[in-house]
Amino acid sequence: MSGADIRRAAADLLTLTLDSRRTLDDAMLTSQIFNTLEGSDRGFARAIASSALRHLGWIDTALAPLLSRPLPAVTAPIRALLRTGVTQLWLMDTPPHAAVGETVEAAKGWPEARSGGAFLNAVLRRADRERPDFTRMSPLGIWPDWLKDILVSAYGTEEAEALARAQLTEPTLYLTPKSDAETVAAETGGTAVPGGGVAVPTGSVEDMDGFASGDWWVQDLAAMIPSHLLAPEPGDTIVDLCAAPGGKTLQLAAAGASVTAVDRSAPRLRLLKENLQRTGLKATIVTANADEWRPDEPVMKILLDAPCSALGTLRRHPEGAWIKREAEVARFPAAQARLLDAAIDMLAPGGTLIYCVCTPLPAEGVDIVEAALATGRVQRLPVTPNDVPGFSHAITSSGDVLTRPGGESDHDTFYIARLKKA
């Protein structure tokens, strides 16, 4: 395929993601233009789109002075080509003749963008001459205002900026071994890290040694903590609520526990079934609303990874900041409180419950747990440094865990609380 085809595919991914409010992964599955590409061409198109999404606030701010009309007034295909063009110029060190020429050529072969070719050419040539200094911009500028405001309100400017700077770096790819981390590290060329995970070079997961044989699965290092805190043992009966896509279910099953994985999304559960088959692990899968379903009898161990705003995974899914709306984020706490209440119903007296969410927002994390503690139905089981190797710095003053990326911490954000039923 030509360079223009690659640029058109990258722009189509941006259009599908931002205008249709889809994840980038979903856009890659549905973009007809992208799916005509193969091999490294697909990788380059995805890299352009991903970089544009990772820096989108900065890009739009720097583009505005170069335009004769506001960016939202520009047609969607031209807007996407502008963003992908300047991403190549400003962030990817693509030679200007390729970044400008191939992006303009992409417009010529795209009926919806053909009429804007001259405008696109003029703006990109000016963008090449008048390059912004992103080092002088606040890292908070990569986000929409509503997200910046709620994170600054929750943590202050310094902590919010640290979260934003973490988003600007490509995250490490981590694997969870089914059994031995050193063996998986050796066969994948990765490095075993504290907590039991393996850090590996980024690449095609399906092509890595051990994938087909089910020796491991992809899972962020911080996402491994909730299952570890539940201390699964052979013979344990464990309920994993809101389980899909299933990394934690696999962890629990690999420890020898009898796991029931509950989720309302049949498509997401299909991925869990595929991973169970690939790894040779077993679990009972139930398609149901976790706040309505109940086990035959109360159980001693429950893991609830509640649906949330997922703002803790923006390093891996930077589009989340732009495809979510503030009103949508505000609706999560009510659902999380219902799910936690239901999970406590399912828990036997003296049983252990792990509540976790992949977001830094207190309204979805510690506030939900404190409300449950206030009912007297559960008490907190504080986490100790021995419980979380490599994450002692993430233990809060209350004894919960809040992992945040930044500095030497290369992982997603998770809030995790360990509770015991009275």
UniProtKB/TrEMBL annotation:
One GO MF term, please? Answer: RNA binding
Which residues are in the SAM-dependent MTase RsmB/NOP-type domain? 135-422
Keyword Methyltransferase attached = yes
Summarize where S-adenosyl-L-methionine binds, as residue positions: C242, A243, A244, P245, G246, G247, K248, D263, D305
Q: Which UniProt keywords apply?
A: Methyltransferase, RNA-binding, S-adenosyl-L-methionine, Transferase
| Catalytic site | C358
Fetch the PROSITE patterns from UniProt: SAM_MT_RSMB_NOP
| Top-rank lineage group of the source organism | Bacteria
- Pfam family membership, one: NusB
**Alphabetized InterPro entries for the sequence:** MeTrfase_RsmB-F_NOP2_cat (IPR049560), MeTrfase_RsmB-F_NOP2_dom (IPR001678), NusB-like_sf (IPR035926), NusB_RsmB_TIM44 (IPR006027), RCMT (IPR023267), SAM-dependent_MTases_sf (IPR029063)
Entry similarity comment: Belongs to the class I-like SAM-binding methyltransferase superfamily. RsmB/NOP family.
Please identify the protein, giving its name as recorded. Answer: Putative ribosomal RNA small subunit methyltransferase B
- The scientific name of the source species is Hyphomonas oceanitis SCH89
